[in-house]
Amino acid sequence: MNDPATTILFTVILLNFFLLGTSRLGACIRVVAAQGALISLLPPLVHGVGVHTMVLATGALTLKGLVIPWLLFRAIRQVRIRREMEPRIGYIATLMLGALTTAGAFIFADRLPLLSEHHHTMFIPASLATLAVGFLLLITRRKAITQVLGYLVFENGIFIFGILLAEAMPLMVEAGVLLDMLVAVFVMGIVMNHINREFSSIDTENLCLLKE
Amino acid sequence: MLNLSPQILYQGAITILLIGAILPLTIELTHRHSTSLANGLGAGAALLGSGLGLAGALLLLFGQSSVAWQMSWASAGVNLCLRFDPLAAFFLAPVFLLTGSGALFATGILASSKQPGKSGRHWLYYNLLAVSMALVVVAADSLLFLFAWEGMSLFSFFMVIYDQDEESTRRVGWIYLVATHLSAAFLFLLFFLIYRQTGSTEFSSFATLKALPTSTAVLFFCLALIGFGSKAGLFPMHSWLPEAHAAAPSHVLALMGGVMLKLPVYAFLRFLICLPVLPAWCGLLVTGLGLAGALICIALAALQGDLKRSLAYSSGENVGLIFFGLGLWLYCREGRFDVPATLFLVGALLHVWNHAFFKSLLFFGAGAIIHATGARELSRMGGLLRRMPRTGLLLIIGGGAIAALPPLNGLISEWLLYLGLFQAGQTSIGGQAFIFMLLLVLLVIVGTLVLLAMSRILGIALSGEPRSFEAREAHEVGPAMFIAMAVSAGLCLTVGIAPGLVFPLILGPLALLSPELATGAPEILATLPFGAGWSWTCLLVLLFLAVYVWFYYRLPPGDSRRRNTWIGGLLPSPRMSYTAGGYGQLAQENLLCSCLRPPIISVRTPVFFPGHWQWRCRNIDPIMALILMPLFSQFSSMAGSWRRLQGGQMNIYLAYFFLTTILLLGWAFSS
Question: B640 touching A, CB under 8 A?
Fold first, then answer.
């Protein structure tokens, strides 16, 4: 617990629960931004300060902590919504599912054939739990904006997993992943705008007629 | 001097055909009013390319050599093996021949087309269809073969739905697409299993299949028979054939019916070479399916009101005959009847060429009639011989050839089959002899039915009085279409008059297919009565016929022999003559067993005096109506219950992902 990386990962998991339990969109965006900013500190903490890790940390901090939240705040201002009403599965139920999957992540991580230095660290369980929470957000929420948030949380989970490999992975790959995410948020923003203009709400249920 | 090897000619042909596929479309897209230029380019490329290819194929067929070459593209990991041997050349020759004459015929159709802007598309599909057929024949690698096969299916599908504005055409296109891909599915399975056995996709390494145990070999054989047979229209997988062949343009039908149906036969043969000795029932199975298909298809051909459908069923009959010959060859080969085996194989191979010649002639003729009258139903034709004498004459030649009348080519190949059956029957004993004699009798019935079907088509369409305004106004077709027909008719006559010219060309493929028969084959063929005496007699008969026709047409119009039949002072009207349905009644009521009869709607008022009487025969294949349609609707209703999984909401789909991931993790966790 005295290791700063472990503290950060615990905070990430707690923030996951906050995301599952709240309906206020502004708070959700802030929490996702905070989560992104926190995990962007991890590479220098784990692998030591160097050019590679610093570039990665700065890039992730700028994108996850500043640019994307700013884009999302602008989006909710434009479409004028504050709350996620009536999710597909209620908040309490989602929280319970989140707790179950987090517990499952911890159990599963113990059984994985990992390198010895990765055993008994928080990285794998935190990453799996964050992935699951991202998935749960994507599944249970109806509004396009919360689905974008779910996608971002999902990406955060992948990022945590990737930190284990940060030394082995070339910078270009990570830069590509970050850029990918930025583009995806842009595209989703455009999609959201169009859904809003078409149906005067950003409820994705309106899209079910597109199925054939 | 440039050394023109078959390989160079072939590659040149493919290149020119590819150019001819793309250029007309580009021109038509960039210049709106250049349809005639696009037509000229497309047809010119098809003619030139097919000419080169035909020259290459014939050069190789006369030279009896084989060439194999590879086209490698290392960076893409592609290594294409191609092989050009007498068997390939034997099937390539009709491919290129009919591509050329079909293109010539198409210029006549397209020049007067009322829909401008479709020529580019036409030549794209047409020339690519020719390229993929040519590739199917020379492919010596499973992947390349399946690729070309798929191309052949797709481009012929595009040609089937060429008139896609009509609802019925689109429906037929759908049937055709499903049928071809069902057959392709079996082929994929077959080639995958072979790959597992041999570890290679190259045909040259398939020789190791010779060591397979009999059960595996039989499995492969059955897969190949289903896969290739359903593409060839072998009974009972022929139902798509009349549908698709009623929709496509006639010149494409000449290509599809004339050669595309034979390419599965070719591939089947190619595959048979690699297999070890099969049990005797395999040969008999092929024979039985072929004969059943021939009988049923020709009986159905005698019922169809639609000219193209009738001809399409007759294609099914001829494919059946080819498989009949091949099956008997397989059976006799294993049973060591060398003489009959040779006769069957030569007969089946010759029938491949013959059918390409006369079926293309008949489809061209049907296209000319449909072009001239705008009608496809036989009941709207009539009296066309007087209005289109040249086309009519050529159609009569085609009809005579398909009905195996001397001195035309159909007789020669069927003669070989009959002769083989006689020989086999005489040299075998007991039950075996009985089987051969039974097959002989059934073959005779097929031959009789062909005569009935053809006399019906020719008689209803060409003679008598016109049955509709369109038939009255029919006009003779232009020179391009006439030349295309005349080429096929000329070949029908040539093979019929001088079969001795063609036999040496078959020896090359024969040696590849059945090396054990190769030494004896020339002697067996030399004993056939097709020498100079035959040719002179045929020519004499033709001369006599020509003089008779010439004399008849020289009669003054008032001569009693040129006027209508005297019918008691009444004015003759087309309503008094036999209709197409009435002529087919014999086949309808007496020849088909009741389960195979097409559904009939008959309404008759039960009074003493003649009243309203309606009799209609529904235009649907019995196998399709009885088996395939119920089967597929069963499938579709079963599959329909799974459609609820497709909710249309992204959340649900994501939930599927999530659950699958969790399940997979749990599975990995537990194992």
Answer: no
Check if B649 contacts A (Cβ < 8 Å).
yes
B664 vs A contacts (CB less than 8 Å): none
C-alpha distance from B214 to closest chain A C-alpha (Å): 47
The 10s digit of each residue's pLDDT in B5-28 is 888 888 889 999 999 888 888 888
Q: Which residues of B touch A104 (CB under 8 A)?
A: 662
For helices A68-79 and A171-199, give the axis angle rounded to 10 degrees: 0
Do B93 and B54 contact (CB within 8 A), yes or no? yes
Distance (Å, rounded) from C-alpha B568 to C-alpha B353? 49
What was the ipTM of the complex prediction? 0.79
| pLDDT tens sequence across A168-183 | 766 667 777 777 777 7
Provide the token pair at B623.
Answer: 């196998």
Which residue numbers in chain A have pLDDT < 50?
A: 1
The reply to whether B3 touches chain A by the CB within 8 Å rule is no
Confidence of residue B82 (pLDDT cuts 50, 70, 90): confident
Q: Answer for the pair A15, A34: CB distance below 8 angstroms, yes or no.
A: yes
Write down the pTM of the prediction: 0.80
Query: What distance in Å separates residue A183's CA from the closest CA in chain B?
Result: 20
| Complete DSSP assignment for B6-63 | HHHHHHHHHHHHHHHHHHHHHHHHH-TT-HHHHHHHHHHHHHHHHHHHHHHHHHHHHH
Closest-approach residue (CA) in chain A for B657: A135
Chain B contact for A204, CB < 8 A?
A: yes
Q: Which residue of B has its CA nearest to A89?
A: B651
Q: Mind listing the pLDDT tens digit for each residue in A81-122?
A: 777 667 778 888 999 999 999 998 888 888 777 777 777 788
Structure confidence by residue, pLDDT tens digits, B361-416: 999 999 999 888 888 888 888 888 888 888 999 999 999 999 998 889 999 999 99
Calpha distance B535→B590 (Å, rounded): 39
Residue whose entry in the numeric block shows the structure tokens 């489809």: B363
Chain centroid offset of residue B463 CA: 27
Give chain A positions within 8 Å (CB) of B661: 135
Q: Which pair of structure tokens corresponds to residue B293?
A: 């298909």
Cross-chain Cβ contact B650/A88 below 8 Å: no
Report CA-CA distances (Å) from B476 to B16, B105, B469, B473: 32, 14, 16, 10
Of A111, A139, A208, the CB nearest to B658: A139
A6 contacts: CB under 8 Å, gap ≥ 6: A121, A122
Inter-chain touch A135–B658, beta carbons under 8 Å: yes
Residue with the larger pLDDT of the pair B199 and B46 = B46
Q: Quick one: which of B135, B127, B68, B61 has its CA closest to B93? A: B61
Q: With CB atoms and an 8 Å threshold, state whether B649 touches A108.
A: no
Contact A141 B651 (CB under 8 A): yes
Nearest to A70 by CA among A104, A26, A111: A26
Name the closest residue on chain B to residue A205, using Cα atoms: B649
- pLDDT score recorded for residue B344: 92
Q: Which of B141-155, B315-329, B331-345 has the lowest mean pLDDT?
A: B331-345
- Compare CB distances from B648 to A104, A136, A208 and report the shortest one's residue: A208
Residues B595-614, mean pLDDT to the nearest whole number:
72
Contact indicator for B18, B45 with CB cutoff of 8 Å: no
Alpha-carbon distances, residue B651 vs A148, A188, A205, B294, B654 (angstroms): 12, 15, 9, 56, 5
Between these two residues, B459 and B619, which has the higher pLDDT value? B459
Query: B501 Cβ partners below 8 Å, 6+ apart?
Result: B494, B495
Return the domain boundaries, chain A.
Answer: 4-211
Q: Which residue of B has its CA nearest to A142?
A: B651
CA B223 to chain centre: 21
Please tell me the predicted confidence (pLDDT) of residue B1: 42
| Interchain CB distance below 8 Å, A88 and B651 | yes
